Amino acid sequence: MRNLTAGGVYGTILASALIAALHSEAQAYTPCYDAAWIMVTAGTAALAHGYAHHMSTHRPGSGLHRWRQLAWELMDEWPVVVACWPTVGLLLLAGTFGWPEAPVTYTALLLNAALLLAWGTFAALRAGYRRRSAVLLGLADAAIGLLIVAANAVIK
Fold first, then answer.
1. pTM (predicted TM-score)
2. Contact status, residue 99 vs residue 17, Cβ threshold 8 Å
3. pLDDT tens, residue order, the chain (156 aa)
4. Which residues contact 138 (CB under 8 A, 6 or more apart)?
5. 31-55 vs 2-22: helix axis angle to the nearest 10?
6. Residue 61, Ramachandran bin (φ over 0: left; ψ between -120 and 50: alpha; else beta)
7. Do 118 and 8 meet the contact criterion of CB atoms below 8 Å apart?
């Protein structure tokens, strides 16, 4: 369950940082292209993360065992990709219905902030915190996530 939470948080922050970085008033708005770009980036990040885990656990064994371990590590990264789906879905809707860029970007960021709050609250509840404390921790986690997104947007 830890990988689910970590992957969900990572994917949500990744999607937020990417949509913030893709927001550009100077260029043509291409929400479907942006959605594809986010999915490719999330897939690449998941592959890299899974491969890094695999490389850090080298143990003697057969080649078949190593390939099987790699496959399991890569499959364990699915929450990173799935956590990007709300942002991707919003972008696909924007492309279908011709919604303007700024409101879509801000809506995606608010949606992802709410998801970070939910992820933080869920993790705190699972760790044994009471509801009020868990929500406060969730708010703090959401704020930290938004700071990371803001930092990524500034350096674009």
1. 0.86
2. no
3. 457 888 999 999 999 989 988 887 778 899 999 999 999 999 999 999 888 878 887 777 777 877 888 888 888 899 999 999 999 999 999 999 999 999 999 899 989 999 999 999 999 999 999 999 999 999 998 898 888 877 766 776
4. 116, 117, 118, 119, 120, 121, 122, 124
5. 140
6. left
7. no
Residue 14 to residues 73, 83, 146, Cα–Cα distance (Å): 20, 9, 11
Are 116 and 13 in contact by the 8 Å Cβ rule? The answer is yes
Say how far apart CA 72 and CA 109 lie, in whole Å: 32
Residue indicated by tokens 């492309």: 95
Alpha helices in the chain (DSSP H): 2-22, 31-55, 63-75, 78-82, 85-97, 101-127, 131-154
